[in-house]
Amino acid sequence: MSTWKEDLGTSNEAFSLMQSIFANVSDAILVIDHEGRIVKANAALAQMSGWTEEELVREKHICELCLGMATCTEETSCTDCFFKRVQMPSFEMRLRTKDGHEHPVAASSARLPDDSSGKLVMILRDMSAQQRVEKERYQHKLTHFAIQAQEEERKRIARELHDGVGQALYSILVGLNVVRQGNPGEQVMQHVTELVNMTSKAMEEVKRMALELRPSALDDLGLLPALRSLMKRVEKTFHIQVELHVQGEKRRYSAAMETALYRIVQEAMTNTAKYAQASQLAIMFENREKEVVVTIVDDGIGFEVEKTLSVGKGLGVFGMKERAQLLGGTVDIRSAPQEGTTVIVRVPLPKEGILDDHSRADR
User: Fold this and answer.
1) What is the pLDDT of residues 295-336, one digit of tens each?
2) Which residues, in sequence order, are CB contacts of 308 under 8 Å at separation 6+?
3) Does 66 show up as a binding residue in the annotation?
4) Using the 8-state DSSP alphabet, how is residue 61 labeled?
5) Rounded-to-integer distance, Cα 227 and Cα 234, Å
6) Which of 18, 208, 330, 362 has the fewest CB atoms inside 10 Å of its own CB, making it the most exposed?
């Protein structure tokens, strides 16, 4: 049987422990009297709310901090207030801070047992960081679905241009050639020749549009052949010398990864062609053990990266970074006036290996 001294010692230890918990726990704890006045608050509440403990205790009413419970109907949040209940194990509320901001918090409340004064204890946990992470995750998913839908739509339109409009133009061209072979009069021959030229140009334009929308080589042959085809078009259209250097094993990657890398390189090359006044452009493709690194370097006039992005002229750059981020990768842009531009893309390889429908060797 324990003595009263032992009981007293145990009681003091328990009280000291509770004081330590109250002072150091990361969750905000406050005690409210029967009128709603805060009579006790820990340091976590002071940090969360922006008010000091002296400003809170005996000075603040709970309604000055509470902006309402999260309920299905906003109007009932005060009618069905937690303060009117003996206990609410879990609910959400919005906490007003000293500087006027709102914090979403997860809360619980309970009235102290054997307390005739009706004091209520509340525990609050800041949910701002968690909600921010959830919002970013949701936006990440939305972006992924939007890009996926965009690529599918591009693929469909490219196929329709090639198989529909392209084939129709080809049939017209064949018919015009048949007419031309029938030795029509000189005037008719001149018109037919003009129509043949116009139809040929239209076919080339349709083919170019289909390639820009979604190159068939990307799906059929893989990333590197698609990039080589893109390089030839850039060289022909913009008269820029483009070189591709490949290090490491040539292979196929996931469809999402190949599409993202192709679009990033395409955007970088388009920016070079439009704005850089470059004469040469080099692409280094490195297949490493754990990641793929693509470096695009031009000898153009360069630009101030931060200044350009800050004034909202970097939507293409934003798209590049967003595509890389969806794969857990990064896009780093280095440039300065009269020093050219370097774009470094890093995308990690999946740990489980490359085992989807594009796992065969690249050609």
Assistant:
1) 999 999 998 888 877 766 666 888 899 899 989 999 999 999
2) 314
3) yes
4) B
5) 10
6) 18
